[in-house]
Amino acid sequence: MKKFTLLFIIPLLFTMASCNHKIKYPVTKKVDTVDNYFGTKVADPYRWLENDTSIATAGWVKEQNQITNKYLSNIPFREKIREKLTKIWNYPKYGVPFREGPWYFYNKNNGLQNQSVLYVRKWLNGNPRVLLDPNTLSTDGTVALAGLSVSHDGKYLAYSIARSGSDWNEIHVMEIETGKLLPDTLRFVKFSGMAWQNDGFYYSRFEEPKPGQELTGENKNHKVFYHVVETPQKSDRLVYENKKFPDRNYGAQTTEDERFLILYETESTTGNALWYQDLTKKQTGFKPLVTGFENDYSVIDNTGGMLFVTTNQKAPKKKLILMDPDRPDPADWKTIIPERDDVLEAADLAGDRIISTYMQKAISKAFVYDMKGKFLYEMELPGLGTLTGISGKPGDKIAFYGYTGFRYPTTIFKYDVANNKSTVYNAAEIEFTPDDYESTQVSYLSKDKTTISMFLVYKKGIKLDGNNPTLLYGYGGFNISMTPSFSISRTIFLANGGVYAVANIRGGGEYGEEWHKAGIKEKKQNVFDDFIAAAEYLISEKYTCPEKLAIMGGSNGGLLVGACMTQRPELFKVAIPQVGVMDMLRYHKFTIGRAWASDFGTSDTKQGFEYLYKYSPLHNLKKGVKYPATLAVTGDHDDRVVPMHTFKFMATLQEDQAGCNPVLVRIETKAGHGGGKPTAKVIDEVTDMWSFVMYNLGMTVK
User: Fold this and answer.
1) Which of 439, 567, 432, 578 is nearest to 502 (CA)?
2) Bridge partners, residue 264, by sequence
3) Of 21, 30, 49, 216, which residue has the fewest beta carbons closer than 10 angstroms?
């Protein structure tokens, strides 16, 4: 009896001692701000943190980072993780090659370069040379290549750069043969490609933002311009604007032969209209191909004056059609590849073939058809994974593609189109043994009995004793699919006994547009229910337990983590919301946030307010609740999901937290939503996230 009492008291004393050493968080000042939403008064005491350029906000950021860094520096194996990650990260990484004119282009990172370098070679047997090295554009690697487009004759490269992770881009132009940088500099470009026609290209831009509002002000009045190489931006020709609808966005595309100029019109992230000009005719203005925003349309290319288009119009899992621009009525469309049970992700033209990429239960399949839609054969892919970036051209005998999986490092393949034969072109040579691990796909029932699929990855020989440290990842929105992919940083967690789980929850695109729509607006709670049910499955099947379970997600996935940790705080030990949308009542008032209304709805309507208020992470924190150990991650230059979401959420969480679990915020400087982040910053960030996760799950690092 005495022995039992002693064993009971020791952990109790340890817990009490831990609570006595709770982190002393900064006292965040409050302001008396209250909004009235249809008769409901909602306090917003940390509204001042929305001002990202204020001295007060900068002081708050500095104070928070100091506390977070102090905590992280005391994790005994943090530096061991950093050293290991730096070592295993140091291997060559290649992008999928593509051709324009006589040139083949590809990206390569030697290992620890902050940014990948763009190489070019004349035909496939030419000597490769560096065409553009973004690492020379800044001393700290925070200037990144955001996009590129090569003129169809292979004469010019137009490329956009982003600074410090911002969505704002600058476009520059280079001669490919000589590598000479031309004087072109186009500014205030955002959400734009570069569509070539002759010696110029079409692009989209906004007006110059007001001083101090560069990263938070609303982006309105998107316009399309045409720029002629080696002329000043002020001379660019305005191609399209729509003053009646300042919230709409516009993007331009030209077909391979430069005959058609396609204009995409969007109100949000779902659904688009299509307009066109025949550039071989003296056509003024744009003619409609499809109007309205109920469905998605994407032009692949044209053949004989007809347009190949993928769409989910009356085909939630998508189909490929042939459209006559002179007769664009749906009654006149010709179906080339009809809808099937699997989701059509993309259709690419290579040689005299159509390569169609599908998702079958979130796993890639690829089928080859002739140009009339006759099925020829299935591509042989190397396992259960994800096919990325098919690159080919009509008339070419070869194409390239990338392939990746949970146990399959990203590999580049060369594909013989006519003979349906793939050979490895660039393989990753890394410190990883796939046979040491297992990956599987399971199914479980959500709250409303909907069947959900989930991927699991773990070391062979796992014991289902309910004691395995587990990380559950999810997204659940905007028709984006969570498919198998390799992560070198994840191997740290797996090698030390961790279980990695990815749930294919509603709101994503894994099972088509109906799956997406089942997780939007007033149905958004389905997304959180699916994720919570995934956690409950992992616990009931003895993979883990609440004290060993972490959850992670970014952007809309950060919202997912925020909603689930506030709805079921007892279910999780650790939460990592990355660049999350946390204030659902005001998200649409910043930068491009209004475009997310197709998934979220807004608080501007009574119905929208009511369902958003029920799950908004910021507004569902409660004082006195024991929340999971939380490390929220954001960037000070994030102008997509502005950092005020994380700032306000974490200020409230620190005030409300009742338990001993740490609730910290990591604010990266000169970083944005994630794109273009230099390797050095990525390694620092994943070091801190894995250290926090593994330390709070009670793991040791071997």
Assistant:
1) 439
2) 251, 274
3) 21
Q: Are 161 and 110 in contact (CB under 8 A)?
A: no
CA 28/CA 650 separation, integer angstroms: 10
Question: What CATH number labels 93-254?
Answer: 2.130.10.120
d(CA 672, CA 190): 14
Please give the share of the chain, as a percent, with pLDDT higher than 90: 93
| Average pLDDT across the chain, whole number | 95
CB 497 within 8 A of CB 437: no
> What are 259-280's pLDDT values in tens digits?
999 999 999 999 999 999 999 9
Q: How crowded is residue 562: how many other Cβ atoms within 10 Å of its Cβ?
A: 31
Nearest to 700 by CA among 469, 464, 499, 489: 469
Q: Which two tokens stand for residue 182?
A: 């031309």
Side-chain-facing half-sphere of 694: CA atoms under 13 Å: 28
Average pLDDT over residues 190-199: 97
Query: Using CA atoms, how far apart are residues 416 and 380, in angstroms rounded to an integer?
Result: 12
Q: Write the CATH number of the domain with boundaries 65-87+432-696.
A: 3.40.50.1820
> What residues act catalytically?
555, 673
Q: Which is nearest to 232 in space by CA: 166, 293, 185?
A: 185
Of 269, 265, 251, nearest to 598 by C-alpha is: 269
61-72 as b/e, with b when 16 or more CB fall inside 10 Å?
Answer: beebbebbeebb
Name the packing angle between helices 679-696 and 55-73 (round to 10°). Answer: 60
Instruction: For 78-131, write each residue's pLDDT tens digit.
Output: 999 999 999 999 999 999 999 999 999 999 999 999 999 999 999 999 999 999
Phi/psi at 147 (nearest 5 deg)?
A: -175, 160
Q: How confident is the model at residue 18 (pLDDT cuts 50, 70, 90)?
A: very low
Q: Please report the DSSP string for 470-528 in residue order.
A: EEEE----TT--------TTHHHHHHTT-EEEEEE-TTSSTT-HHHHHTTSGGGTHHHH
Confirm if 596 and 589 have CB atoms less than 8 A apart. Answer: no
Which amino acid is present at 228?
A: V
Given a cut of 90, is residue 5 above it in pLDDT? Answer: no
Q: Sign of the C-alpha dihedral, residues 430, 434, 436, 442?
A: positive
Any idea of the CA torsion for 324, 326, 328, 334, to the nearest 10 degrees? -20
Closest CA to 482 of 651, 688, 343, 681: 343
CA torsion 688-691-695-701 (nearest 10°) is -170
Please measure the distance between the N-terminal and C-terminal CA atoms of the chain and give it in whole angstroms: 37
